[in-house]
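The protein record filed here:
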Amino acid sequence: MEVRRKWLVATVLGALVAALAWWGLSRSTSPAGPIMGVANRAGTAFTQTTYGVVVGDKVAFGGWPLENTTRSRFVITRISVTNVPPGLYVQAGPARRVIGASATWLPTDPVPFMIAAGTKRASVIVNVEPMKPGRFVIQGLLIQYVWQKKYFDAYVPDQFTVCAARSRSKAIEACAQLLPPPPKIWPMGNALTRWLAKW
């Protein structure tokens, strides 16, 4: 009888944990919402930007413009990169300038950050600084925002690569080889990691 009771308690607890995990994941993998599709509207499914620098130099990458084609405002609550390679210092946020890549850091505006209806207000700026030689690849951007009182998570396949060496010519040479494109959808395991980070 005692064994049956323990089995029943374990089953109920297991079901409760599974239900909570499903609920949490469904919240963390909410639809991308209307902010997505910018890359496709521009005629491509992803972008790849590369830049060669001397170790310790700072680089700013500009992501896809944060375009609002709806009739309601967006409020960007968080911008982060999908991954931070070891040896690379990364800072990400919205900025009013739209750039490709630059050899200097640009300031990012704080979040929350509002984008009015029908505007292309800003770009995502990813500032990076390599601390050692190597090729560092950031696969994309994760953007959390509120639209019409609902929360959305968007993955943008905007791939940034910085190659660092002791000389700029060697760094540029290291970036000459084309990399595979970023994933079309960001893996579920990373959504779980982000959900756990919220708690």
Summary: Residues 23-29 have pLDDT under 50 and may be disordered. The two ends are 38 Å apart (CA to CA).
